Amino acid sequence: MLKANKFIVFLAVAAAGTVFCRAAESSMPTNDSKTVSKCDCSKKTWVELGFFSPIQFPCEENVVNGFRLSAVYTYNKGVNGFDCGVICDSGTDGTNGFQLAVVNRTAGAVNGLSIGLINAAETQMNGVQIGGFYNQAGSDSLDHAGADFTDSVGFQCGFVNTVDSIFKGFQLGCINISNTLFSGLQLGVINLSEPPSDVFDDFHSKEFNEKKKKRSCVQIGVLNFNPNGVFPITLLLNF
User: Fold this and answer.
1) Does the N-terminal or the C-terminal CB of the chain have fewer CB atoms within 10 Å?
2) pTM of whole model > 0.85?
3) Which of 121, 126, 118, 125 is nearest to 160 (CA)?
């Protein structure tokens, strides 16, 4: 009976949120008697309140410059400021500031501090990621296959840390993985520093290909894998 009551409250809140958002949209001024589009709202806002996207106010297409609260899942093109909630999702305009959520995901660049169970910066990360389970800086998407990767600089701390961009910094975790170019220290149980594939060498700059051949990663862990290291596989230490 208790679970049924909670579900009814959940539906009531969702319905109220939908009505609220639609009422806000309908109250907006129009030009030349034309109907305002479903999400024709301000492109910037100080505050974004979201329940489960697209049930949010003002709307998904905003860039938030201030504060965003996500009750369950909220998406915006970008966030600059304080971003908190359960699942916080941002687009290619990126995130600048402080993320505090169960899941922080950004399609663009992240500059600042991210704390969550899962932190994913799919283009670039400059700052600190502290995750209970998983941290990601960069992506192995085919969009990056034919172009030089964007540099990321910072610190990752979590059970699994992954890097798919040129990364300069420190990884601390149980499993640390770098699939592109890593300059710094990996400290964990299993460390992997794998240079990018040779398939796209003709598309990368000469400087990028030269860096790929150099040893620049120090690994301290039970098992260390580094094809460019002193040995491809070592115990305790590799560089």
Assistant:
1) N
2) no
3) 118
